[in-house]
Amino acid sequence: MFQRVTLIGRVGQDPQMRYTPDGVAVTSFSLATTETISKTTFDGRDRTCPQGWKESYNAKNWELTTWWRVTCWRKMAETINQYLSKGQQVFVEGVVSGEAADGSQNPRVWTGNDGVARASFELTAREVKFLGSRGDAAAGPPMGEPPPETGLEEDTLPF
Hints:
By secondary structure, this protein is mainly β. Helices cover 6% and strands 43% of the residues. The two termini are 22 Å apart.
């Protein structure tokens, strides 16, 4: 089985770095991804608001924002902590890493102070790329760990 999650979003808070007892750097940050759909269909009819969605800032679309908790390890963690900041747009590729109480790889669900059910999606990053111009936020180089070796040479691939 194979799992890969690809996200583009904005950083919600400045990253927080810590170290494991063995001295391995770990950095976490929150990432907001937003899906948008038009309030009108292609033929001009009004669309009803899907459950859980909200009106966009320009009042022309419906939006659904999902929050992710992204964790980076080792050298990537150190670089992310140094260059990434709140509001910056990033590309993140990784695997779902959160464990629910039953041990499954489902989001953690809880009830907020306002009584509304909430969920936490957690992702272990394999690659992080900084998007946008340098003026958007503190910029840095693209980060990633090399993909695992497949054992196939490029010349032997069937395409």
